[in-house]
Amino acid sequence: MARIERRADVDLEEPTLVEGLPGLGLVGKLATDHLVETFDMTYYASVHCDGLPGVGVYREGDRIVRPAVRLYADAERDFVALQSDVPVSASAAPGFADCVTDWIETEDALPLYLSGYPGQTEDDETPVFGVATTDAAGGRLDDLDVAPPSENGAVAGPTGALLERAAEAGVDGIGLVVESDPQFPDPEAAAALIEQGIGPLADVNADVSELIDRAEEIRAQKEELARRMQQAATDESSQAQPIRMFQ
């Protein structure tokens, strides 16, 4: 049965949720993993949505097996992170989106969905833009001067399914999209998501210098996961991409 099962008592009130599914450049996962570690967030809930692979995850020095998709919480910051160690398949994405969106509605949370789009800018600042599922959420982006998209596009994969489901349900939600290396893990792009989007929207302050300083080491550690993502079908990977069409 699809459910999100609480594992710890953490008091939350209209929290901000950041989504960290693996995708292009692993930008969402890198950003979310960094925030979980930086804030020493509490393992809050296990995610058991239909279609998720039955994988037990263990950590170095810890005997306890946990599910591959989990929620971590920080009561002080009213902040929740969805951490995933597996990709969500295309066939499972709609059910997964329903399961997570039901929890978001119950908790009155504001979800921030993260995605990369292929490109490597030569500018000093990595471009981040924002999209929204409602006018109210769009107003949050306007207030913080987060850029709108500069061309037509679509977010694919499970992150796209989450955005589509939130829009359908009228749930306030924000998609943050960053230009990212299309082939390798991109810690710099993940840092840009935190600095330009997640931090201002969630009112949290996280030092991203470690992400940038350890970029080469992080790439080496994450390349195996990136290779597995590349082997999956394109529609199973969360990514944004332009749509070229006649107007």
Describe the protein's architecture and organization.
The chain is of the alpha/beta class. The protein has helices spanning 27-38, 93-107, 135-143, 157-169, 187-202, 209-213, 215-231, and strands spanning 3-6, 16-20, 42-48, 56-59, 62-67, 69-74, 79-84, 110-118, 128-132, 153-156, 174-180, 239-242. An 8-stranded mixed sheet has the order 1-3-6-7-2-8-11-9, sandwiched between helices. Strands 4-5 form a two-stranded antiparallel sheet. A two-stranded antiparallel ribbon has the order 10-12. Strand 6 and strand 7 (79-84) form a beta hairpin. The mean pLDDT is 89. Residues 231-241 have a biased composition (Polar residues).
Instruction: Outline the low-pLDDT stretches.
Output: none
H-E order? EEHEEEEEHEEHEHEHHHE
Average pLDDT figure: 89
Domain count: the total is 1
The profile of the biggest β sheet is: 8 strands, mixed
- How are the strands of the largest sheet arranged? 1-3-6-7-2-8-11-9
Supply the helix-strand structural class: alpha/beta
Q: What is the CA-CA span between the terminal residues? A: 44 Å
Give the beta-strand count: 12
Into which percentage range does the β-strand content fall? 25-35%
CATH architecture: 3-Layer(aba) Sandwich
Q: What coarse outline follows from CA principal-axis ratios?
A: globular
CATH superfamily: PAC-like subunit
Instruction: Count every helix, treating DSSP H or I runs of 4 or more residues as helices.
Output: 7
CATH domain fold name: Rossmann fold
How much helical structure, as a percent, in the residues? Answer: 25-40%
CA radius of gyration: 17 Å
Which CATH class is shown? Answer: Alpha Beta
